Amino acid sequence: MNPEDFDTGDPIAWCPGCGNFGILNAVKTALAQSGRPPSQILLVSGIGQAAKLPHYVNCNCFNGLHGRALPAAAGAKIANRELTVLVATGDGDCYGEGGNHFIHNIRRNLDITVIVHDNQIYGLTKGQASPTTDQGHITKIQSAGVILEPLRPLELAIAMGASFVARGFSGEPEHLAGLIVKGMSHKGFALIDVLQPCVSFNKVNTYQWYSKRVYKLDSSYNPAERIAAFAKACEWGDRIPLGVIYETAKETYEEKSGLDKRPPLAGADILNVDINPALT
Amino acid sequence: MKNELTIRIAGEAGQGMQTIGAVLCRAFISAGLNVFANQDYMSRIRGGNNFFQLRVSGKPAHAPRRQADIIVALDKASVELHRPALAAGGLLVADAKKYGLAAGTAGFADVPLYALAAQAAGAELFMNSVACGFLTGATCTDFKHAESAIRRAFEGKPAEIISKNIAAAKAGYDFSLQQADCRGFAPGAGTGGEALLLDGNGAMALAAIKSGCKFYSAYPMSPSTGLMETLAQYAEQFGIAVEQAEDEIAAVNMAIGASFAGARAMTATSGGGFALMTEGISLAAMTETPVVIADMQRPAPATGFPTRTEQADLDFALHAGHGEFARAVFTPGTPEQAFALTAKAFDTAERYQIPVFILSDQHLAESYRSVRPSDLNMPPVKRYVLTGKIAPDYKRYALNDTGISPRALPGLADCVVYADSDEHTEEGHITEDAAVRAAMVRKRFHLKMAALARETEKPQAVGVENADIVLVGFGSTYGVMREAAESARTIKTGFIHLSQVWPFPAQEMEALLKNAKKAVTVENNAAGQLARLIRRETGIKLAGSILKFDGRPFDLDYLAEALVAGRFQ
């Protein structure tokens, strides 16, 4: 398959120059590399600019509620474990509105890949602070600057026991595509936080701002060391690491629940369930 | 002889009233009798005061009595707390020595529950089994029925536990035989026949299994948790994923995700959790994803009475979820109806691709009845989905005359499926087009509602013609209305029970009510929500309502008194 095989005719509603374009290209490249046909892939999203992404990809799409992409994705994956499930979500959707689901789906550890379009701002509602907006950032609502400390998704994920934690940058789509491929081949919950400039509403964290700071982790970095990975995840400011921050093998939900030994639930023959053994 | 008997077992939380109550129920069923048992318990794990009350009868029993013919107090506090509930000529059982009561004083029968337990089984802990045995003897019931019921209740436990419980029960049984004649408390002759002991939650769980439910996600909440426990018990055997969600928002969204992927899915909760689910309900409607949602009502607002009963979520269930869309709301009144209507809920949800609600309540959910397996009926299960090879021009939300677009399952069909919570085109992509919007609203709301209305469960009307008064209710008041109508002597009483309140069966209700001499609703709420609904949908203003909103269910005596006194609001 080629990335173009995942094109749809749906007109794209993002602003020109939006960081989402780089993520969309990376997703299509990664899906093409995965070798999975569109009918076997499910992209789930919530609400926000990131959540529109599945409409621009030729595969199954469930565009649900704000903050609730993860539960819908979890339900779909449990119902049909043969589906390749990816989630396209944003910093507001995943870390704000859906924060509880983020925490608990790390615990659940289903084999899904979660791509968070993290532009450190609320784009769809026109420029309010998101959970990842840095302190001091002035918005129309936070007019004296953000006073809350930002949520650190990678630190949180590692602390929660996530088995795959990575950071990409939409300005590096090829590198990002590689991360998505790795996330998809990882067995378990894979978090890829993607730095993504919002050209309309984030005048602080611009392409230039990110480009000056990001660097790619090289082979000298060992993502298997949890404590070192946590320290790496804490790195934020003048230098921001990109790449797989942490990866470890962990039993998945499918394995722990025994789902992996059953045919997909969605395809079960339910026409003649015999409940007599339960009628006692 | 009145051919029926009510027994109340009272004590602190943790004293095993429920276990031993269920044992007694099964013992009486095994003796061929009918039982109705309800539970009154506090929202605590230890202490307080709870009771399990069972009504045993030769005839089918559908509702509780206010007073008990035998009350067993398992602790001292229960003696005076429950004495007012003792029927004339009744027997109040207490352990005088253990509770420090003056032996030989009138007003209770001294049964050394604790000492007998220590003697027969080596620990006072077994006093509830002593009580069970005592009650078996005191009601002229053969001990073999109690023994088999104990074996069943403790199935899988170590043999020693089972034999100790049986020994304790035997000691209680033998003690009762040395006491007064048991014939005064014999519940009459049984009608025989095989029967299950089933509560509303259990009936719904069995129906969900038989309907092919493959995914159940919920957050534990009284009084819905029993349904989840039953499904979890059978999950492995029937290949069902039972997932405890982090909250009710996750529960409903997971169910919707699972259903989108093709598994029949359900969630259940009580009012507070249902409130959290409402955005998800709207999502199911918009994405046209089938989901079955049960609300086991309890008294609200807010946390209310966690372990008690109310029917105050009727208006809420009719309107839950923002926006306008088609829905069906079932309101079963018995375990048999809970079974049949849960099956219908799964069928309706999938056929119409909508959220379907089942309104139960603590009284139905956790009251046990003897139920004949042959009365658990449902039509053969059908599926309404597309899998395999699909036409290349497939559109998930294709517009047509029925409002129901063929539903392909992602991963099981060879096409791609787009579902969206935004307003969408036939393909499932986001749109802001006015004409498309109007067509989609017509599809999701007008067309589906019109079709659903044709299939609404007919109200059950009994003895309505020439009745002096017609009782009208929904859900768990079925039993009390039925028995009140059957046993009414001075006032000729009929009843109408609605087991589905939406789409509202307006024509049928109009026909039933227009010639009624006097009709009143019987509702476990304070607003008379059903009376208001009837007025809204038929224009008929009923004579009033008999309302109860103290968190307790109606009992036969309460309703009979209200009828005689004409206490309508």
CATH class of chain A: Alpha Beta
* Unreliable stretches of chain B: none
Text of the CATH class of the largest domain in chain B: Alpha Beta
Report strand order across the widest sheet of chain A.
2-1-3-4-6-5-8-7
Termini distance of chain A?
Answer: 54 Å
Query: What spatial form of chain A do the alpha-carbon principal axes imply?
Result: globular
Largest sheet of chain A: 8 strands, mixed
State the CATH architecture of chain A: 3-Layer(aba) Sandwich
CATH topology of chain A: Rossmann fold
Oligomeric status of the shown chains?
heterodimer
Could you explain how this protein is built, in words?
The complex is a heterodimer of chains A (280) and B (569). With 280 residues, chain A is α/β, with parallel strands linked by helices. Chain A has a single domain (3-278), classed as Rossmann fold (3-Layer(aba) Sandwich). Chain A has helices at residues 20-34, 69-79, 91-97, 99-108, 153-160, 173-185, 207-213, 226-233, 253-257, and strands at 41-45, 60-63, 84-90, 112-118, 164-169, 190-195, 214-216, 240-247. In chain A, strand 5, helix 6 and strand 6 (190-195) form a beta-alpha-beta unit. Chain A is globular. Chain B is α/β, with parallel strands linked by helices and 569 residues long. In chain B, helix 16 (478-487) links the parallel strand 19 and strand 20 (493-498). Chain B starts with a strand and ends with a helix.
Summarize the helices and strands and which ones pair or pack:
The complex is a heterodimer of chains A (280) and B (569).
Chain A (H helix, E strand, L loop, with lengths): L19 H15 L6 E5 L14 E4 L5 H11 L4 E7 H7 L1 H10 L3 E7 L34 H8 L3 E6 L3 H13 L4 E6 L11 H7 E3 L9 H8 L6 E8 L5 H5 L23
Parallel strand pairs in A: 1-2, 1-3, 3-4, 4-6, 5-6, 7-8
Antiparallel strand pairs in A: 5-8
Chain B lengths: L3 E10 L3 H14 L3 E7 L6 E11 L10 E6 L2 H7 L3 E9 L1 H4 L9 E2 L2 H9 L5 H12 L4 H11 L5 H20 L17 E4 H11 L2 E6 L6 H14 L2 E4 L3 H13 L3 E6 L1 H17 L3 E7 L16 H6 L8 E3 L4 H18 L2 E7 H5 L1 E4 L14 E3 L19 E6 L4 E3 L13 H20 L6 E3 L6 E6 L3 H10 L5 E6 L1 E3 L3 H8 L5 E5 L5 H10 L5 E4 L8 H10 L4
Parallel strand pairs in B: 1-4, 4-5, 5-6, 8-9, 8-10, 10-11, 11-13, 12-13, 15-16, 19-20, 19-22, 22-23
Antiparallel strand pairs in B: 1-3, 2-3, 2-14, 7-14, 12-21, 18-20
Helix pairs in contact in B: 1-5, 1-6, 4-5, 4-7, 5-7, 6-7, 8-9, 8-13, 10-11, 16-19
